[in-house]
Amino acid sequence: MFVSFRQRSGLCSPLAQAKRQVESAISTMNFTIVQASWFMEVWLSPALGFDYVNRTARISGPGTSPVSWVSFRDVAEICTLAIRHPMAERRTIQVGGPKAMSMLEVVKRFEKIGGQAFQLEHIPEQTLRRQFERAADSMQMSFAALMLGCAYGDEMNMEAIVRQFGIKLTSVDDYARSVLREVVTGSIPIPDHGVQFRERST
């Protein structure tokens, strides 16, 4: 079992290369590879600029491309099920959420559920492209590539996987209700992934 991520063509980063090398290395074994879309608990969190606590959102590009936001809990469940599932043997399983949404659509869902408007900040695609091309190290390059991939979108249909594995996927609405409830109760932890942008533009 190996957990990887979906990669948009044309965005070859050190992290993506490392993941693909591992995928290739285990392809002669009785393998299962799970390629996940963007984790909502990471990319829709204050740590990466989606600050639902203070109702601000930093958006890569125009924010109009749909992404199949997925919960890491659902990916973990797929991995658990796949270990003993005959349909998972020697297979790459691509996992996303139940419904693809653009970042702007996600903001609207949070605004509706939380009852308060968000202030938006857009990072232009060219800014992300410059960060990718001028990255000083592999981490900066890989993260910029992920941000570009998020801006370009990652829409997928999960109906077949849901049917085959019998899993109920977490929706963006489910996630929004959960974290906004924690904000109200004051129990939410604010993670710090140590990622910062050197260039910003509205």
Structure description:
- The protein has 202 residues and is an alpha/beta fold.
- The chain has a single domain (2-185), classed as 3-Layer(aba) Sandwich (Rossmann fold).
- It is built from eight helices and six strands; from the N terminus they run βαβαββαβαβαααα.
- The protein has helices at 14-25, 40-43, 72-82, 103-114, 125-133, 138-152, 159-165, 172-185, and strands at 2-5, 32-36, 50-51, 56-60, 91-95, 119-123.
- The chain has a three-stranded parallel β-sheet with strand order 1-2-5, sandwiched between helices.
- α4 (103-114) packs across α8.
- It starts with a strand and ends in a 17-residue tail after the last helix.
- Residues 190-202 have low confidence and may be disordered.
